[in-house]
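Hello again,

I reread your note about wanting to compare the complex against the isolated chains. To keep things tidy I'm splitting this into two emails, and this first one only covers the full assembly. Below are the input lines as submitted, including protein chains and any nucleic acid or small-molecule components. They are followed by the predicted structure of everything together. The single-chain runs will come separately.
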Amino acid sequence: MAIHTDRKYEEELSDLRRHILEMGGLVEKQIAWAVQALTARDRALAEATIRKDHAVNRLDVEIDDLCIRLLALRQPAARDLRFITTALKITTDLERIGDMAVNISERALELADAPSLKPYIDVPRMAEIAARMLRESLDAFVREDTALALDVCRSDDEVDNLNEQIFRELLSFMIEDPQTITRAMGVLFISKYLERIADHATNIAEMVIFMVKGKSIRHVEELPPTV
Amino acid sequence: MAIHTDRKYEEELSDLRRHILEMGGLVEKQIAWAVQALTARDRALAEATIRKDHAVNRLDVEIDDLCIRLLALRQPAARDLRFITTALKITTDLERIGDMAVNISERALELADAPSLKPYIDVPRMAEIAARMLRESLDAFVREDTALALDVCRSDDEVDNLNEQIFRELLSFMIEDPQTITRAMGVLFISKYLERIADHATNIAEMVIFMVKGKSIRHVEELPPTV
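Full-complex prediction:
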């Protein structure tokens, strides 16, 4: 079978790419909605975001099936094989990001009726960076763009710093006024969930670099300038 | 190629099973050490647990390579194909469990010099259940034992309840005496990390059921009595 001239096979690979981007777009929306539900105290939006998780889970199963079918019927080699096995691993991260958006929505529901501690500024900023990291990690995946993947890994520090900052600020609220503890904990968990979303995006980016370069940059002390 | 009579191929599959169990054994030890470092205020053990993460990451890369090689050279079908693709996904969970053990060790270091809030009872219990879930999820994987995998999924509630209980208890500490807040937060994060370890084990068990039965039990409202 002359793999690279097989039109149907190419279409299946494109289909896989499209599905991954679709799943990514969906969880990206989930993140934005969850945080908007929080800041706007919009219970209906929080509930809609939670319900949307079914669509994410359906795509998860569909993509895994697509990958397994491609592996079984097309017996891809080298580059395509690495692409498909990476896709298999990426769906797990995307599915978990969807779970995080559900968790944020649940906290948003809890916080919707409580008086706010202060206007939300850093949380939406964190969400924006995390969503951008997610989008770019998937762009890096479909384009096999390691420079973009490395950018994503670098952004992770930014999110970690914001999370640290939010943590310290909420801690001082709690110490000053124990009445704020329950609410502060709610926001603190949301900040943690966003940090984990950024972690998942970073994992995807690391897998893209491994896929293209065969080189693992996980757990290195310092990121290389290029890969 | 008569796949099922090919001795070398069978050896490679056994090798894959063995590697997964080795990686699982290693992260299981990491969990036990991290929690022992916490309860015994043993800084050296916490640091050793953190260092051990390199071995886990090395196994992660090795197993992925093994899977990709098997897919490329053996072109496995049906059952073996599902086994190998599930192995590829499981390493991600195992690697993250290792990260959680590192996080617990880091908190253990922070808490080592602070006076304790109360004796640790629920945290070690939670760690024990989570470690057992991990072990059983991997046993279920290598034996394709869906009944055992379903047991693991059921245990997740137990861990969630303990986490809830620890959370409420620490919250009351914090509200009564704001001086305990920083320490209580440290313990609270550890409890969260253990809950996530149990989540990863549950994810592995769910993937095992999907591998064997081709049926997804993720995100169902209620677990079925059997699969």
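For quick reference: The radius of gyration of chain B is 19 Å.

B.
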